[in-house]
Design a protein that fits this description.
Layout lengths: L2 H8 L3 E5 L10 H13 L4 E5 L1 H10 L4 E4 L15 H9 L4 E5 L11 H11 L4 E5 L3 H10 L3 E3 L17 H10 L4 E4 L5 H9 L4 E4 L1 H4 L1 H13 L1
Parallel strand pairs: 1-2, 1-8, 2-3, 3-4, 4-5, 5-6, 6-7, 7-8
Helix pairs in contact: 2-3
Length: 229
């Protein structure tokens, strides 16, 4: 699928994040593939997924565009969403449609800067769509200047300097919409259809929802917390 076709397909729609880490009850490639099928049946326009194994299983299960990531921890950096060229190489090798990476203002593994890392990625894979997972407006502006194709609010609330940010961070989205010219992806803390619709109204190109759809332990916890109040 051509890049313009991928963007056209996801515009204005719901991308469902189908992820489960090793310690979570739904962990497993077969479960994530079925989750993606369920998302498609609910008219999702795309999937966000983690690990080569899960992405390959989902590619076999649905024909939706996939935002691919590899979460990997390195001892010398807090950046863990597709942090190095090793992860980029692995994702490109399986032909994922969009690759997302942490684009926050933090040092990457081996002391790399975002600018240096992304220059290598773009040079090696000039036709690949790249998404910047940001936490602030300044990070979004830097990501656009570096040449990212899509800009996301993904990491708002997950960096030390945004710990007090609202979730979802609609003010950040509005700020981005006013000065960013690349497609904006609203992601993070969207727990209801109403919030998703609000994000679209605030200028989002597409919406990513994860835990509110695909993590039943989190959904159950919200219900039980409400009952205990």
């Amino acid at each position: 699928m051509r890049n313009e076709d991928i963007l056209r397909q996801i515009k204005g729609g719901l991308i469902v994040s189908c992820q489960a880490l090793a310690h979570e009850p739904l962990h497993g490639t077969d479960i994530m593939a079925k989750m993606a099928i369920a998302a498609k049946q609910g008219d999702a326009v795309g999937i966000r997924a983690n690990t080569v194994a899960d992405i390959m299983a989902i590619q076999q299960a649905v024909d939706l565009p996939i935002i691919g990531i590899i979460k990997r921890e390195y001892a010398d950096s807090p950046v863990y969403i597709s942090p190095t060229m090793d992860e980029i190489d692995a994702l490109c090798a399986i032909g994922v449609d969009i690759i997302a990476t942490d684009a926050t203002d933090r040092v990457r593994p081996n002391g790399a800067s975002l600018a240096g890392f992304f220059a290598k990625a773009r040079t090696k894979y000039p036709q690949q769509l790249f998404m910047a997972d940001c936490s602030t407006l300044d990070e979004a502006l830097q990501a656009e200047a570096l040449g990212f194709d899509l800009i996301g609010t993904t990491l708002s609330g997950y960096t030390p300097y945004t710990a007090d940010a609202p979730a979802p961070n609609l003010p950040l989205l509005v700020g981005m919409q006013q000065c960013i010219h690349k497609p904006l992806i609203a992601e993070g803390g969207i727990h209801s259809p109403e919030q998703a619709a609000q994000a679209l109204q605030c200028g989002a190109f597409a919406i990513v929802v994860g835990g509110a759809i695909t993590r039943p332990q989190e959904i159950a916890a919200r219900f039980t917390a409400a009952l205990q109040q």
